[in-house]
Design brief:
single chain, 21% strand, Peroxisomal Thiolase, Chain A, domain 1, globular, 11 helices, binds oxa(dethia)-CoA
């Protein structure tokens, strides 16, 4: 069950107007087409550094140090090898605990919840620290106006502990899925073995920067997140009308509005922090969970759905009754 939340965003705020100085774009376009006014950009901090900060806060919120495993969900790893989780665990002073990364695009956190809650309910570990962290802007081509205006950096973390099915804070059921036939719609072509083993000559396609077919990803995000939420609600024997809040991947306010419309949700049920942080990839769901809990927008007893969609393609949803839980965001 959910026993503590933490989040960290780097201090540097980059406004739309600042981006307009170097890109052919406008504040009006970014706000109306995406819903972002500003984002946080990590300077001198990489994904593991952000993860350590969010992890410290989640441990403080849960008031525990007896962690059995650390899982890091990220699409912007510090290095291709090794995974970042072992370094996060040791920098948090957690010793030689189990530690590994999960790569499932922007769905990595909700995939991570499924894995972490299985590890806890199976009895393998008494508690798990799951962190989603992204210094994603390092992977964005600064000259690509389509992607450079969307992303921001940040991290969110949760501590999961053993509990009883059905009690507040217990996670599940889960709906997880993927569509590898659309792997190229949002991807980073360079930096991996494919670029090194198959490239005949260096091209812009081998650059280690994100490439995205925005309109197609938009459509598939709406379809797959909506379908995934419907499935998880059916498994949980409840309907959209029973929900107090939906925390969905923060990619674009128009995606959130379309998912809300399709599910028959009111605007107040679909939470959003997009305007101040942009799309923080896998970190977006736990960042919003932690911020909403800290601000009082999420309260004990509320029925909440978490939903995500991202590169892979992947999607994932789960449902929980919000527990009495601390959240540390500053
Ligand atoms: O987190 C992983 C999953 N990612 C997502 O879910 C992102 C999904 N996609 C999106 O959110 C949207 O597709 C974008 C925000 C990326 C793009 O918005 P769009 O409304 O789909 O734009 P578009 O690509 O259809 O382009 C519309 C117009 C084009 O101009 P013309 O051809 O109509 O003259 C673009 O060149 O907007 C232009 N444009 C821009 N204009 C000003 C594209 N980017 C910009 C920009 N500023 N930054």
């Amino acid at each position: 069950m959910l026993a503590g939340l933490g989040a960290y965003v780097p201090p540097r705020v980059v406004s739309n107007l600042e981006l307009c100085d170097r890109l052919d774009t406008s504040d009006e376009w970014i706000r109306s087409r995406i819903g972002v006014s500003s984002r946080r950009i990590a300077e001198g901090e990489a994904t593991v550094d952000l993860a350590v900060r969010a992890g410290q806060r989640a441990l403080a919120a849960a008031d525990r140090r007896d962690i059995g495993a650390v899982i890091l969900a990220t699409t912007s790893a510090d290095r291709l090898c090794p995974a970042g989780a072992p370094e996060v665990a040791s920098r948090l002073g957690l010793g030689s605990v189990a530690a590994f990364d999960i790569a499932a695009g922007c769905s990595g956190f909700v995939y991570g919840l499924a894995v972490a809650s299985s590890l806890v309910t199976s009895g393998a570990f008494g508690s798990v620290l799951l962190i989603a962290s992204e210094a994603f802007t390092a992977l964005v081509d600064p000259s690509d106006r389509l992607t450079a205006v969307i992303f921001g950096d940040g991290a969110g973390a949760v501590v999961l502990t053993a509990g009883h099915a059905g009690q507040p804070g217990a996670l599940g059921p889960f709906d997880l899925g993927s569509d590898g036939t659309n792997a190229d719609l949002v991807h980073i072509p360079g930096g991996g073995t494919r670029a090194k083993k198959k490239a005949q000559a260096p091209t812009t396609d081998s650059a280690p920067f994100l490439r995205m077919n925005g309109p197609q990803v938009f459509e598939l995000a709406v379809t797959n997140m909506s379908r995934s939420v419907r499935r998880v609600l059916a498994q949980a024997n409840c309907s959209a009308a029973d929900l107090d809040a939906v925390i969905a991947h923060q990619a674009n306010q128009r995606i959130l509005d379309a998912v809300a419309d399709g599910l028959g949700l009111g605007a107040h049920q679909m939470l959003s922090n997009l305007t101040h942080v942009g799309n923080t990839a896998a970190a977006s769901v736990p960042l919003l969970m932690a911020q909403a809990a800290a601000s009082g927008a999420l309260c004990a007893g509320q029925r909440v759905v978490l939903a995500s969609f991202g590169a892979g393609l992947t999607w994932a949803s789960t449902v929980l009754t919000w527990p009495k839980v601390h959240s540390v965001v500053e």
